[in-house]
Amino acid sequence: MATRNYEGKKFDKLSEVKTLDALTIEEALQININDKPFTVSMRTPGDDTSLVRGLLHSEDLINSIHFNPELILKKENDNGIVTIVNLNIPEDKLGDGYSNSRSLLSVSSCGICGKTELSDLSFIGKTIDDDKKIDINIIHKLFDKMKIRQHSFNKSGGTHAAAAFTINGELLSAMEDIGRHNAVDKVIGDLINNNQFKAGKIMTVSGRISYEIIIKCFKARIPFLAAVSAPSSLAVDYAKELGITLFAFCRGERATCYSHPERTKNNTQNTKAS
């Protein structure tokens, strides 16, 4: 259940009419670790198992992709929406992210808003040095494949989407959520849960790119990231540093590459100096 209908009144200069609009649902999900509250994520209900598993990986809360902790549903609201989950994680499986300072509330617009400063982020693993190349001309086709799976967005216009593909453009996973970072976490969790983690080489996202999404992409060892909208300056800096080829402004058949362009190939375009 990703949308809920709300009555309203639509005004224009000449008239006013009643309307019934589908709006994207935003609900709180409290995540407990070993029976202790850890964080609250504002998310779109659905695919919660993937969301939690992806968050565990992206935030370095567990130290192995091969360990899937038991997830216990602790509480549901009157509509059957899970509002509290508990994860049983042995101490030897907890990652460094568990001990980092973090506020209890993590809103949908900020994936790592509880971190006190950038130095809190510890990168596990070396810079991505994948030498595979991507044809710039397939980028728009990937977004077309993602759009087909944006069912909630087609109803409400209020969700973000993320999708993962193989290096050849095969769709592996596509997820939606009211939060950009949640959609990315859902995709990563889905890849892990379906044993496709290593196959994911390209990620597309429907919105803008902040440094948090770069970090999530890095943690998932995905070398190519493409976005519909703009990147932040810090996102580009991190992409360059961590070895991610970053595309932005991917609209129609256009795209701008801001980092590691040596991984791109384009046999149909004449290069022009700007």
Question: How would you characterize this protein structure?
Answer:
With 274 residues, this protein is α/β, with parallel strands linked by helices. The protein folds into two domains: 27-120, no CATH class; 134-265, Cytidine Deaminase, domain 2 (3-Layer(aba) Sandwich), CATH 3.40.140. The protein has helices spanning 48-58, 139-148, 151-156, 180-193, 211-219, 233-242; strands spanning 3-11, 16-24, 27-33, 36-43, 70-76, 82-88, 105-106, 134-135, 160-165, 171-177, 202-205, 224-227, 245-251, 254-257, 264-265. Helix 1 packs across helix 4 (180-193) and helix 5 (211-219) runs parallel beside helix 6 (233-242). The longest helix has 14 residues, at 180-193.
CATH homologous superfamily heading of the largest domain: Cytidine Deaminase, domain 2
Query: At the first level of CATH, what is the class of the largest domain?
Result: Alpha Beta
Uncertain segments: 103-124, 270-274
Main sheet: which strands, in order across? 10-9-11-12-13-14
Shape: flat
How large a portion of the residues is in β-strands, by DSSP E? Answer: 25-35%
- Gyration radius, rounded: 19 Å
Give the overall pLDDT as a whole number.
82
CATH architectural category of the largest domain: 3-Layer(aba) Sandwich
Q: Tell me the helix content.
A: 10-25%
Q: How many separate structural domains?
A: 2
Secondary-structure element sequence? Answer: EEEEHEEEEHHEEHEHEHEEE
CATH T-level fold name of the largest domain: Cytidine Deaminase, domain 2
Seen as an oligomer or otherwise, the chain set is single chain
Q: Structural class, from helix and strand content?
A: alpha/beta
* Biggest sheet layout: 6 strands, mixed
User: Helix count, per DSSP?
Assistant: 6
The total beta strand count reads 15
End-to-end gap: 48 Å
